[in-house]
Design brief:
single chain; mainly alpha; 2 helices
């Protein structure tokens, strides 16, 4: 004959304030995610603006010997600058 001992664990209750702390931490994480997304979007916007300005400078240099190509470059820079 074999005997088994089984233990019945006591129910564990959540510590006081755990629900509040979890909710506060969750909202803090959402806030941090929004701030990071806004920074990434702003950084991308500045990068696109800088790239468009570099193309405009190149178009200004090319204008004297190929004005049509320079106009195409300016139009491309405008499209690049205003697209998301």
């Amino acid at each position: 004959m074999t005997t088994f001992s089984t233990m019945t664990p006591r129910p564990v209750t959540a510590p006081r304030g755990a629900v509040w702390a979890a909710a506060a931490f969750g909202s803090l994480m959402k806030f941090v995610a929004r701030v990071q997304a806004a920074r990434a979007e702003r950084r991308q916007r500045v990068q696109r603006w800088n790239e468009a300005n570099e193309v405009r400078l190149h178009a200004a240099q090319v204008t004297s010997w190929d004005p049509r190509f320079a106009a195409d470059l300016m139009a491309a820079a405008d499209r690049h600058d205003f697209t998301r």
